[in-house]
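Follow-up to my post from last week.
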Amino acid sequence: MLRTPIKHCRNCGTAVVYRIPDDGDTRERAVCQACETIHYENPLNVVGTVPYFGDKVLLCKRNIEPRWGKWTLPAGFMELGETVAQGAARETVEEAGAQFEMEGFFSLLNVPRVGQVHMFYRARLLSDVFKPNFETLEARLFTEDEIPWGELAFGTVKETLKYYFEDRRAGQFSIHAVDIV
Ligand SMILES: [Zn+2]
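User reply:
Got it. Predicted complex:
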């Protein structure tokens, strides 16, 4: 179970039971005993950017759990009604208060263990002044040598940064798809 179990029907409020629905499904779902609504639970998208300024990348020190005090690329849960790029840009504004221009899609990382897919775009910073919100203790630029590799919040951030600096050295950015198991 990757999530907190559903207790009540989203449609009518009656207690649900976890069982395989009778419609040919093969997985257990939270099924309402009164109105028979089936509650599907699917992976969540985490969207963010690799904001760069010259040879440096912007990281944010987290002021929220999980991984309080660890460094991350600006990223967060995609909202309904927005595209991946819109969500990635929104998170970059919220968490870093950065001014930037969105560039190409960069990395897709499956994290089936937690039921998430993480996606990052590259973003060219227009300024090295940041105004992070409450979610961020500090937003600052790092060269590759300065990256606090042992203090990164998530494996997806570490992988994305590795690919970013590799591509940067090679002089060409490509798209990376990775499974983190
Ligand atoms: Zn119901």
